Amino acid sequence: MLHNLLVVDYGLGHPGSVHDAWAFQGTHIASRPGDLIPEDHWTWADSAYPTEEWCAVPFKKPKGRRLSHNQNLYNKYLSKVRVRVEHAFAALKGRFQSLHELCLKIRNERDVKVAVYWVMCCIILHNMVIHFEEEMVGIVKPSSRWAMEEGSGQQDGDMVMIGEPVGTPGQ
C-alpha cells in the first residue's frame, strides 16, 4: 500500500537561509522521537540529518575511499523511499495552491506569525482530508494522486516529516 502522505511533524518560522538540520533540532520529533515513531521503526532522511537509532540516513563516502556495494545499494533504496517526502510536498501544495508562493509581505514578527499559521492550517487541513478519505474508502474518491499531480514540479527545500513510519518492524 502506498504511504498515506500524512504530515506528522514540521518546523515553521525559520528564515529560508537556516539549514534543514538546524531547523530540525527545534521539532518535536528531534526532541522526543518516541512520541511519533513507534518502537522498531524509523524515519528516512538525507545526509544533513543526524544519525540516530530512529533516523536512517545515507552512508557518506569516506575520504579517498569508496562505499561498499551494500552501502551503495542501501543509499539507492533510501533515495527511492525518500521520494515519498517529495510526494507529500506535492500533495500538500496541490491541495493548497497558495503554498506554491505565499503572497504575504513579511515586515515584522506579526507577519511571520500570520505566514506560519497559514502554512500550519494548510497542513492540518491536508491531514484532515487524508483521514476523512481513509474513513470513507469506497464512498469518496481519494484525492492524493490528483493533489500530487497538481503540486508536482514545485521543488523546494522545506523540511517535512511525513506519515506513519515506512517499512516493517526491525528494518
From TrEMBL:
Q: Which residues cross the membrane?
A: none
Look up keyword Membrane and say if it applies: no
Superkingdom is Eukaryota
Q: Pfam families per the record?
A: DDE_Tnp_4 (PF13359)
As cofactor, the record names: a divalent metal cation
Quote one Gene Ontology molecular function term.
Answer: metal ion binding
Protein name per Swiss-Prot or TrEMBL:
DDE Tnp4 domain-containing protein
User: Organism, per UniProt?
Assistant: Pisolithus tinctorius Marx 270
Q: Which UniProt keywords apply?
A: Metal-binding
